Amino acid sequence: MKVEAFLDRFFPAGSNPLYQLGAVSFFLFWIIAVTGLYLFIFFETSITGAYQSVESITHEQFYIGGIMRSLHRYASALLALSVTIHLIKELGMKRFQGPRWFSWVSGVPLIWLLFASSLGGYWLVWDEKAQYIALTTAALFDYLPIVVEPMAFGFLDGTTVSDRFFSLLIFLHVGLPLALLLGMFIHIQRISNSSTFPARGLALSLLGAMVVLSVVKPALSLGPADLNRPVQTVQVDWFYMNVFPLISETGAGAAWVILLGITIALLLVPLIFRGVPKPIAIVDPDYCNGCSWCFADCPYDAIYMKPHEKLANHLQSVVVADKCVGCGICAGACPTATPFKSVNNAYSGINLADENNAAILVRTQEQIRQHPQADKHVLVVGCAHGPQIDQLASDVVTPLTLECVGQLPPSYLDYLCRKEGVDSVLLTGCAPGNCFHRLGVELQEARLAHEREPHLRFKDVHVKVTTLWAGAGGETTVARAVAQLQQDERIADAKDA
Ligand code: HEM
Description:
Elements: H1 2-8, H2 21-42, H3 49-59, H4 62-92, H5 101-125, H6 128-142, H7 163-187, H8 200-216, H9 244-250, H10 252-272, E1 281-283, H11 293-297, E2 303-307, E3 315-319, H12 329-333, E4 350-352, H13 357-369, E5 378-383, E6 397-402, H14 410-420, E7 424-428, H15 440-448, E8 465-468, H16 475-496
Parallel strand pairs: 5-6, 5-7, 7-8
Antiparallel strand pairs: 1-4, 2-3
Bound molecules: protoporphyrin IX containing FE.
Protoporphyrin IX containing FE (HEM) binds next to helix 2, helix 4, helix 5 and helix 7.
């Protein structure tokens, strides 16, 4: 988070790559696909033609082929980097707990597919690096009892590597990335409105930077592979060949144990660090009017609509318990959750099981009423994953921490300002684009801006709502903003007077 906050200084709002690593990975994949298609047109699938065709693409049409080749290489390297940081970030944020296990577990095979796709690409160049990779990989697979005829045997002299073998390699180098793409789509199956394209500025900058790098430092081949001559030294590509020194050092057996051990450990992460189960959302058919707004807002695809069990010609929301992460964003989307109703208090159609929105309202009202004489009363609404706001509590500040800031129906803010004498509201939480529950910040902003239902009814002189998405660790920034709000209120009063 510190690194993210540091990068925030250099990237315009919404462009910090650390907030959109999944989307960046998708974007890089498409660059690799397009450039790969171009290279495929000119590539010769024969033992004698492969190396020469890559050389010709690189040097004879350096203005386009060379750039395409370099882009293919650099985008692949960046993809390895972005996926690694993505994994570390999801791990650090524990976004694998509860129903989120699916995204985590489906992400793990993508690492193998990514490595296999990329190393297959290196083979095709058929230079000394390819020779080293081919022999080391073959040694790795030869260790497995499933390979009947040792693969490495096939590389012992140049005559045994045939053109058909190259056709097989091409088939794998196309097939594996396709399997990777399929895996990527399965990976995002359980999240709705997933972001698969980064901010346009970031995408263009990434592409531009890679084009410049491709011109300044084009990707080149080493000398041609010669299976009669062992490779003496080879430059390791640390993005994809990082396990090769391990294989050379430890031998194939130990390497398999380490690689499979890491894979199994990753797969077991959601089981080992399960965490405390969160209360999920529950629907109350007595209040659900079937508007579908919760269905539209749920970031985890955990709500569907069915015919209403009590109202004819109406729909009713249903929560899929296995998918609900308990973010409460659905409760904030429910239009029946308005305290302005003359009956039923603020009872509403969908709520988190542990505390419904009506109870949250009562809790907040009680806190505010403890300080009836408060001058310039500020209500600070925050979330469990952003800046901690409880320590701000005072005679004039009421903090309200929710699971996600998207859990609060905007009408509550309106109501608390009008009926309970709150002078201004500060909404804080995760940094923009980095909401722990994916869409809470974005959806709440849209509701406040009248761009999404349920919207804030009146944003006028009575209801002053400010947002400050300071992110975890942003306590000081929030405290300063609260003080500033009170100061502004006093200045406004003085002007009025
Ligand atoms: C090619 C590789 C990968 C791609 C393209 C990719 C892409 C994505 C995308 C687009 C999202 C949705 C982001 C959003 O809209 O909120 C996502 C979420 C996620 N990814 Fe990946 N990912 C990859 C690999 C991995 C790996 C290796 C892991 C970990 C083992 C992983 C773990 C997760 C998790 C846990 C989420 C869900 C976060 C949540 O519930 O909010 N991903 N990924």
